[in-house]
Write a structure and sequence with these properties.
Helix content: over 70%
Strand content: under 5%
Largest sheet: none
Radius of gyration: 30 Å
Number of helices: 2
Number of strands: 0
């Protein structure tokens, strides 16, 4: 077998590295586009969850300061709200 000159070997390796570099750049571009599409909506959803949670807490506090709070219906609503805040469905207590 005839030995391959060093320059040919190096040029082949440079070609392989250039191809790998192009592949990695494309992957970075794809992942950047993906995170841009997913992070921003997640931030908006998180802000909405926080607003709704604060609203639910405010309603619960308003119930506490009314005479209606002692009723069974309001106690049930309180339990359901506190269960929902833990991330469970109210019927999964």
């Amino acid at each position: 077998m005839k030995p391959v000159p060093l320059e040919v070997t190096m040029m082949k390796r440079i070609g392989e590295l250039n191809a790998e570099n192009a592949r990695l750049k494309a992957e970075v571009k794809r992942l950047t586009a993906f995170t841009t599409r997913t992070i921003i909506p997640n931030e908006l959803l998180q802000a909405e969850v926080e607003r709704l949670t604060k609203g639910g807490d405010l309603l619960l506090n308003m119930l506490i300061w009314t005479d209606e709070y002692s009723s069974d219906r309001c106690n049930d609503a309180k339990e359901k709200w506190l269960t929902a805040k833990t991330g469970k469905q109210p019927w999964q207590r």
